Amino acid sequence: MSGPLFTGSITAMITPFADGAVDEAAFRKFIDWQIAEGSDALVPVGTTGESPTLTHAEHKAVVEICVDQVAGRVPVIAGTGSNSTAEAIDFARHAQEAGADAALVVTPYYNKPSQEGLYQHYKAIHDAGDLPILIYNIPGRSVVDMTVETMARLAELPRIVGVKDATADILRPWKTRDAIGPDFALISGEDATIVPFLAMGGHGCISVTSNVAPRLCSSLHKAWQAGRMSEVTEINDRLMPLHEALFIEPSPQPAKYALSLMGHLQNELRLPLVPVAAETEQRVRTAMVHAGLIN
Predict the structure, then answer these.
(1) Which of 119, 122, 136, 257 is catalytic?
(2) 199 with 19: CB under 8 angstroms?
């Protein structure tokens, strides 16, 4: 490998619903808009895509729709994680058959495996298919934190190509790069800390905010890559209130409200997620005005 496989602004895609079902037409239009606005890659059926409340058939259909609509224009990194290794293998094999470019695999949640258990989980998924794999390390949701040492062991496998790091530990990307080397993709999962993450050697962000502001998020990464630091600061200042507002309530509740204001989808979620409260609506609107997204 020469350089990381994935860089830049990568959208953790929402899944639109209408009358309780996946809204395929809205999803296809949303994919086209994301690509037109400059997103570097798309991630269907991650946490932001409400994967916990999709049936397995819906999960697979959303991946297939995304791959079909993208039609090779940008990489598709399919969410294929589970706290059952066999289930994660099934999702990863399906994503490969559907034509996805990589798999995003979350650390197993709730059953809290040891570091050896984490290693064996990812090795089993790796050995069962041919897709490049991004490890998704998010201790706040899964209650396990993969150590840098375990990640370095996994990085010795040829198709473990990077990490989506949602630890919010700004030293972690430096420690990971120091342990594994410069070709391992260091992708942030925390919108609000993206600039310090990049400064510590990061390569990109799998972003919730880029659902709502894809062009701004893409422009920030392009400015960073070109060394235009004053532009990075200016864009980051425009985005920061939005980064905060989109996480006042559980994601993607605020993001779906924001996208409904922009006409991209209905503000519909699946229980246990619910539409945001009125005060959150106001915070989201104010942040969108600040970012220049609405009047």
Answers:
(1) 136
(2) no
